[in-house]
Protein 1
Amino acid sequence: MYRGREGQWAFYLHRISGLGILVFLMLHVANIASAMWGPEVSNALMKFYHQPVFQIGLLLLIAGVLYHGFNGLRIILMDFTAWGVRYQRQLWYGVWVLFVIFYLPFLLKIGGGILGGGHGD
Amino acid sequence: MAIKSKRYEEARLEASTNLELYWWVFMRISGVVLVFLLIGHMWMNAILIDLNQIDYNYVAKRLSQTTWKVYDWLILALALLHGGNGLRYVLDDWVRHPVRRFWTKVVVYSLIAFLFFLGSLSLFNHDFGVK
Ligand code: HEM
Ligand code: HEM
């Protein structure tokens, strides 16, 4: 299965990020679905989650989703193509290139928001 | 047991049951779909708008549009199944005691079922009244 130096790292990061996303998803659905109980309930929760601590958490979550997603694609390519395993090192670098390209906009936008203030009303 | 193989042919040989092989395939299909859905979702709600603007009105408006109801429900269903089955792999790996493993799974699956129910209600059984 997972071989080599990158392999072990890749495996644990994949597992931790997967579990992290699942925990987020549960809080997230509860948060969004609370809108069924009207603006008071919903806005109170939203205001709570707009605090800077949670925005830093969100930046971590987004990193987790992007890493888990692109590394997942790498795993899938290795599973279903004849050449995937041969190029696993190159694919591993590819994961990080895609990660940086997609993460930068989020980092700038949300990071800028945290530093610039204006959160939590 | 969860399948550890790196290739489809090997996975077929390793699978203890057909069901286990179907899960293995499902993890990959749902994964490919989720990458696109999730990047799109995060882009719309964090890059195209300032996420500090997300409040009741914003959510009510989005959840009144059929496109986003269906889109969000796909994320909800696929992510809960994919994440729930992934968690099962992890629990089989980490929780060795059979009784403890059983009860952990009962709690976790109940929580997932509840959230699926709650999320589905908010998408298809509630009128947010936005025209
Ligand atoms: C973004 C798109 C995603 C892709 C491409 C993807 C891909 C994968 C793949 C290929 C596996 C390995 C399955 C196996 O070992 O048979 C996996 C495992 C897992 N995924 Fe995902 N996934 C994605 C999203 C998610 C989401 C949204 C969650 C949480 C709700 C999640 C949670 C997990 C967990 C907990 C595991 C098990 C990890 C382990 O066994 O160590 N994944 N994913
Ligand atoms: C940047 C991070 C994220 C932001 C700002 C965000 C924001 C939102 C917002 C505003 C909604 C309301 C409806 C809509 O606009 O479509 C929503 C719904 C939803 N989101 Fe996210 N989201 C994020 C990440 C995620 C991730 C990573 C997942 C999956 C693992 C996810 C799963 C869902 C689901 C399932 C719903 C529907 C909830 C329901 O059934 O009531 N979101 N999100």
Note: Helices of chain A lie at 4-33, 39-49, 52-80, 88-116.
Protein 2
Amino acid sequence: MNTDVQIAIVGSAGDGTIAAGDILRRAMAEIGYRVISFDLYPAEIRGFGKCIARLRVSDEQAYSLKQKSDILVSLDDSHAIPHVGEAREWGAVIYETNSVNPLPEGAHLSAHIDPGQVPYNVPIRELAEKSTGAARSRNIVVVGYIIGLMRLPLEPALRALTGKFKGKGEIAQKNEAALRAGYEEGLRWFRLDDIEFGPPPAQERGAHLEMINGNAAIVRGALDAGIDTFFGYPITPATSIMERLASEMPKRGARLVQTEDEIAAISATLGAGFAGARAATATSGPGLSLMAEMLGFGVIAEVPSVVFVSQRGGPSTGMPTKHEQSDLNMAVFGGHGDAPRIVIAPTNVEGCYRCAGRAFEMAEAYQTPVIVLLDLYLSNRYETVPFPDRPPFEADTNRYADTRGGAAGFQRYVLTADGVSPRSTPGQPGGMHVATGLEHNELGRPNDQPDMHLAQSRKRHEKLKAALRHPGFEPAKRFGDTGAVDVGLVAWGSSFGECLEAMYLAQEEGIRCAALKVLMISPFPVEMATSFLADCKEVLVPEVNYQGQFAGILQMQVPRAVTRMTRIPCAPMRVEEILDEIRRLAGRVVEPQAA
Amino acid sequence: MSDARHHVIIGSGVAGNQAAETLRARDPDSRITMVTVSRLPFFNRYDLPRVFRGERDWRRFVIYPAEYYRRNRIALRRATKVVAVDSINQTLTLQHKETIHFDTLLVASGARSYLPEELSEYRPLLLGFGAFHEAVQVAETLPKRGHVIMLGGDTIGLDLARTLIELRHRVTLLADDYTFWPHEVSEADRPRYIAALRNMGFEVIEAKERGSLAAVSQGAPGLPARRLVFKDGSELHGDVVMPFFGNVPILDFMIGSGVDIERGLLVRPDLRTTHENIYAAGDNCQIWTDSVRRYCFYHGWKNVRAMGELAARNITGANEAWTPQHDESLRLTADGKILSPFWEYQ
Ligand SMILES: Cc1cc2nc3c(=O)[nH]c(=O)nc-3n(C[C@H](O)[C@H](O)[C@H](O)COP(=O)(O)OP(=O)(O)OC[C@H]3O[C@@H](n4cnc5c(N)ncnc54)[C@H](O)[C@@H]3O)c2cc1C
């Protein structure tokens, strides 16, 4: 890559750290770079907890943040000091040169800069005060400074700023002054770092780049797929899906209802699905637990419905603002009885968009609940996504029964070769039937005979297999070296990004390495996984949960020894750790990690 | 913080770095902190003319890699300015209001180039040459075969001019009392030395012949970027104007510290100041010299380096006196060129 620059801004709640990161990433995206960005903020709403905005700017879309940042900015030394080591050798450390109060030895960031890092001691507060009359815009000064220092155009940042403070006249003006002051300052400085911003890549034809986070991409996908109804109950980190839909759906004549709880939400979603609407709900792990019973109903009654689940730390209330991938078992197996459903897990923000749209298609095509499994990291992280100018989704993938002139006794659950029975919607003449949670016969009437139970169970399982060949959807994809490899990674969800990054680094070290991205977890792409694993001397399965839930599913489907790499750091997995594990498996010596 | 002795050094030039190296060798368990305004790690400033040969990557100038400081446990506080020293409490205050305690302090803050009062109003039109970024700026401003006007001279300027002339730039020297600084050249000898400069390719204008400089301004469009007007009404045009009028010690932060200062910090032959735990070394100190019974400056990087080493030795228990490293007189070579002992880099 010509451009691959990661910027980390560390501050305290109230410093505008996240806002600074947001303006920067929008500006970078507008310039034409690809961006991936993930913010870290304290669980507490008020207080002075640590906030970190990290963005990686590159000319090809990156799938994870880098271990080391090229530019580290301190808006609050007490929080930034433990992170100084994150700036790489010859990277830039930008910090406030003047302190308001006397400091004991070591309390200023400059005391912690490594001789290999390049200090940029900027009078941030003074610039903010001079340009705006107050110190509040320090964060915006920093944004301007970085843009000036890196000799990037200012206009995109100005536009991002205008967007952020739209309708806030004086505040917008002051921030513009702060941005310009920082920019001028940045231009004045002699560069000592070796950070390079190459020209932005050419835009893809037929697509336009947008800076968007995972939840917003889900919303975009749902809207582009023509969602009709949404029922939901707020829960971190899924809430913003409902919030965004709430402002967008009414504009399109679609309906959204905030229900009293998750049970109501899934029930209403199934009701709408039954009625023929494209219907969805969104929740997190605790909500998914509540929905388990009704999901089973969706399976047996074969009702198209989509459930977006953004995982967070569990079990129970767990850690609402921390990242984890521990609801996989719940998504795939949660509920009683043999209740197969489709579970797809995007690995990046663009994937969120595509999975959201395809989920509606699949729900209709295979008449089943479809769970789209995200996690906090993916929900909240921003990426530049090349959105196609025309949505790539089918507006209607239902298989409707021709019930015209039909006699009484519409066979809603008729046994077919592919297991999908043509459906009808309420009010359709001749299509009347009962949708029930009881095991039923082809007419939908209660039936507990073993033959019928077997036939209907087989139908419900077998019909899902076609989803593995769903048009426009690759259930799994191989990256890296072809043929036999020393180490093969198999990964899912947001962890795949870190795995891919680690794989590329391992390849640079001469390790033959490949990675399998598994997007569809239920039904499992057994064939692809089997042939991939056959190529691998060692198999590594990194995931952010304690049990190795995905590794368990993999081994259930393709019996063979794998190395489970489970970590629960309440944050994304570290690339460096995965790389170490690859090296170890490849027989390379790994230096013991510093504590 | 540990109980180890804390040696603090102000300045990361030749003197400061030599001192740090010696301190680490002689006092392995101590803490060493080097505080410096500079953002760059240490490099030899006599190397700066290399930027005109196309070398613009500062990393190629640096003497010690980052690893050297890590390995020797020298805390290098760059971009950090000392604003006050309290000799009673043995603390120094940094510009950002942090206080550092020291057990011993070595002041090696060097000197800055001097600009005569009457020229200060033209500062924005002049280009300096003390820091790396200034050197790069000159190199980037100067066109191919461009014309440099040097005000004053001094051995730093003359050394730079040697490189510029070799690279086919035109150098006009406005010679005055500073031209051979810090060497002392008598009135009687001066014409021979000026002739030697001309022989070396300099265009020399004795400032007093034109009634000295009246103004510096921006050149008119289409003409070189700078215009100099002399009191006799004559003009000179050049692409770059650079002042070289010797150096003055940097000691603002020592005012009020309770340590004696004349022009430089006054030190005994063992480089100790009037405070028993504060030493000085380098361009900023005047050393008591018994032979002439006064405090003298000693110039050039060899002297400065030796001062850094001596101060560190005495801080760590030696009791040795200063001896200059070389004869400071300016020489004329057989082929009619001048040669300063300060231009010997090895
Ligand atoms: C362009 C140039 C060319 C030269 N060429 C030659 C040559 O050819 N031969 C030769 O013998 N000599 C040459 N010299 C002179 C030589 O470089 C100096 O004599 C020598 O650098 C002095 O060393 P020093 O350690 O005393 O001070 P310096 O090298 O000047 O270092 C002083 C240090 O103190 C720091 N400092 C100053 N004030 C503060 C403060 N308030 N707080 C914290 N830190 C502070 C500075 O950041 C710097 O790191 C040249 C000088 C220049 C500028």
Note: The first strand of chain B starts at residue 6 and ends at 10.
